[in-house]
Amino acid sequence: MVTPPAGSREGGYGDGARGALAVEVRPEAGTVVLLLAGELDHDTAEPLRDALQTALNAPAAAGGAPHLLVDLSRLRFCDSTGLNILLRARLVARAAGGAMELAGPTSQVARMFHLTGADGVFRVHPDLDTALTAGPAAGHDT
């Protein structure tokens, strides 16, 4: 179970206000689902950093490999800061024998991933339900 840091809402990070980022963390049958809502940029990235750090450390403490699924369907904007955070988290998950996958990117976020080539690095699902049904890709996210 992923526990949010002291002072944040139970199960979530950030406040979701316009121009802000909210991150809801939900354990789901061996997978930690992170649901992002709002805008992810240099000024709003801290809730995602906190949630990813906790989600990546929890399986290691329990002796397992992390499997993270990040739902982008309510993410209105993502800049290079957000992309770099996701890429770094993917590397940490892989180094621990796990994976990090993405689901439901909005058209704007999907375009940014396509232009940067990141859509070839991550396993990207059309939506969260499809991703959960598919399950982890044999220990790899690509």
UniProtKB/TrEMBL annotation:
UniProt xrefs under InterPro entries: Anti-sigma_ant, MlaB-like_STAS, STAS_dom, STAS_dom_sf
Regions that span the bilayer: none
Top-level taxonomic group: Bacteria
SUPFAM superfamilies referenced in this protein's UniProt entry, alphabetically: SpoIIaa-like
Gene3D superfamilies reported in the protein's UniProt record: STAS domain
STAS domain span: 21-135
Family named by the database record: Belongs to the anti-sigma-factor antagonist family.
Protein name as it appears in the record: Anti-sigma factor antagonist
